[in-house]
Structure formats: structure tokens, C-alpha cells
Amino acid sequence: MTQFENNGLRPSHTPVMEDAILMTSGRIGSWEILLKRRPLSSTDLANRYDTVSGNWERTAGRFQLEAAYQKPLLASQVATVLGQAGPQAQVLDCGVGSGSLSIALDRILTDPVIFHGIDTSAKMLVQARSKMQSAGLRAHFKQADILSLPHDDQSFDVVMAAHVLEHLPDPKRALREMVRVLKPGGMVFVCATRPSLFGALIQLKWRTWAVTEEQGVAWLRACQLTEIGYQPVHLGACAGVASTAFWARLPK
Ligand SMILES: C[S@@+](CC[C@H](N)C(=O)[O-])C[C@H]1O[C@@H](n2cnc3c(N)ncnc32)[C@H](O)[C@@H]1O
């Protein structure tokens, strides 16, 4: 697909860094020091996730992702938003991976909803399809980029993404795209790695942002979202509180 064919190359004389991820910043006197790193291109990231897809279930199990996501999902009251939308309520899970966030959401709902999963990694989508279908979820899948969702405006009651935005040089751009496909009154729910020892390891390995609570809230506000809430996400194994969950509503 052409949208995955960007190899990240730019003319060698171009010193711009707008598309780099801010790793850390500080001030010494009048000096403001920003340390930025180029993110993996969409193609490289999809290839990397294709490579790890066979082990992703073990990773998701080790960090107890399904259980970890349930607490902030409950706190966000996403079940109320979906309950008001009725039996045809539509949920989009961007960067669905092997489906942990969708399955966590399904576990806290009393009535079923319709799930849609997108991911740039074809092999992750195979994992998601198998796991979500055997968990009994009604789900549809498409290979697509969060930056260019193949859906009409105002299609979904809930649009979510766990541990995806931090991979992108401009997470606000992805959030704007998520909001484009959100119905008025709908909810955005995202989890992102936060600054921590574990977060630093993830940053080094995957060239991701470590998203502070202030940063996440600012990104949501910049998208004109309201009723913003956030909560730490307690992951299993040695990761501890390595993520934050954020949620917000699009005004009606
Ligand atoms: C850390 S995994 C998280 C998977 C799942 N959301 C979870 O919480 O278990 C990140 C996922 O996002 C996908 N991804 C990365 N960049 C993406 C993009 N630009 N658009 C869509 N999916 C993307 C990866 O292929 C991978 O499946």
C-alpha cells in the first residue's frame, strides 16, 4: 500500500527536526536544550511489529494488559457513552495490536458493541482477528494508518488507541484524525507510555515519546475535546506505573 511506502528519507541538506520526537529537554542559563530523535518510519514500524507479532500475546500477558486497561476504562465511564448509543454502538481501536484494549472494554460492558480494529502491521491484525473472535467480539479489521483512517467523519461512538500515539512524531495529528471519525458526544480513550525507568527503556528501543500527564491533556485540549480525565495504568511484571490513560469527550 502506498501509504506505507514512506522510507523516512529526506534530502541530506535539510536540517529540520519538526518530525522528530522530543526525548528530553532542559535549560542551562539562557540555553534551552532539546534532545530529539527521528522516529521509525511507518514502514519500519509496521515491519518491526510484524516481526514481534508472534510473541505479542506473551508480551500482553506478561504486562497483564487486559486487566490493566479495565480500571481506567471503568473510570472513564465509557460504558455509559456506549450504553446511550444503543446496540449498534461502534468502537474503533487504532493500533489494535492483538486486541487487548478492545477485549478489556468488552469485559466491562453489559451489552455487546461493534468493534473495528485498524493497524499498520498485517501480522498484528491476524493476531487481533484470531484473539478477538475467539473472545466472542463482533469485530471488523482493516490495515490502515491512524494518520489517515479509512472511515467517514463522525462514524464512531468511541475511538481509542493504546500505546500508539507515542510512536508518532506528531501525536496531535493522529488525535485530530481520531476526532474526525468520532460522533459528537463520543469519547476518545488513549493510553501512552509515561516518563519512568520502564518508559525510558521503551523510548530507547522504540524511539517513542514518554508522555507526561500535562502533555497528554494539552494534546486533548488542542483537539477541542472536553471532560478530560486521566489515570495511571498499572502494568504487570516489572513495568509498574509505566503508562497513563487519558479520556475526553467531543462536545455535542
Ligand atoms: C505497543 S502496540 C499496542 C497494541 C495494542 N493497542 C495494545 O495495547 O496491546 C502498538 C500497535 O500500534 C500499531 N501501530 C504503530 N503505528 C501505527 C500507525 N501509524 N497506525 C496504526 N497502527 C500503528 C503497531 O503495529 C502495533 O500493533
Topology:
Layout: E1 21-28, E2 31-37, H1 42-62, H2 65-76, H3 78-85, E3 90-94, H4 100-108, E4 114-119, H5 122-134, E5 138-143, E6 156-162, H6 171-180, E7 182-193, H7 197-206, H8 213-222, E8 226-235, E9 240-249
Helix pairs in contact: 1-5, 2-4
Bound molecules: S-adenosylmethionine (SAM).
What does it look like?
The chain has eight helices and nine strands. Mean pLDDT is 90; it is low at 1-17. It has helices at 42-62, 65-76, 78-85, 100-108, 122-134, 171-180, 197-206, 213-222, and strands at 21-28, 31-37, 90-94, 114-119, 138-143, 156-162, 182-193, 226-235, 240-249. Helix content is 37%, strand content 28%. Strand 1 (21-28) and strand 2 (31-37) form a beta hairpin. With 252 residues, it is of the alpha/beta class. Helix 1 packs parallel to helix 5 and helix 2 (65-76) packs across helix 4 (100-108). The chain has two domains: 2-37, no CATH class; 42-249, 3-Layer(aba) Sandwich (Rossmann fold). 43% of the residues are buried. It is globular. S-adenosylmethionine is lined by residues 42, 45-46, 49, 60, 65, 94-97, 100-101, 118-121, 124, 145-147, 162-164, 167.
Structural class: alpha/beta
Report the CATH superfamily of the largest domain.
Answer: Vaccinia Virus protein VP39
Total number of helices? 8
Query: From the 3D coordinates, which CATH architecture of the largest domain would you assign?
Result: 3-Layer(aba) Sandwich
Strand order of the largest sheet: 5-4-3-6-7-9-8
Distance between the termini: 35 Å
